[in-house]
Specification:
By secondary structure, this protein is mostly helical. Helices cover 59% and strands 3% of the residues. A hairpin with a 6-residue loop joins strand 1 (63-64) and strand 2 (71-72).
Amino acid sequence: MDAIRALSEHVARVSYRDLPPAAISAAKTFLQDTVGVGVAGSAGPWANDLLNCLGLWGAGSEASVFARSVRFPAPSAALANAYQVHNSEFDCVHEGAVVHTMTAVVPAALAYAERRGGVTGEALVTALVVGVDVACHIGAPSRAALKFFRPGTSDL
């Protein structure tokens, strides 16, 4: 079995009841931290410029942007939130994998949940844990020198 198939099957079969209590607790803590950092990042450099640009990329109001009174299509809201989380470099990092997993995972999961509606807390926590798990498993084995920042290839 190739690595992509194994990883895909792992993602598809994990459920909330499979998660260790420590993983659930960490996901909740890092979710709160990530949203807080994203709210702070709403005042960061070029955040307004990005929002102005996103307003030109397509219409829709599927998901919200942290600390803003605007809504965008889910992908645009996820991008804005990820930028706000990362722009001040206060977002959490997995040192071994050299990835800022929550920066990508939280905005994507929240935008999807808003667009879909009816997503339970258990489903959100499961998505966060699995997303971090995958990003770290992709980033951690890399032994290449950091010629560029790994989140572009490891964060989901």
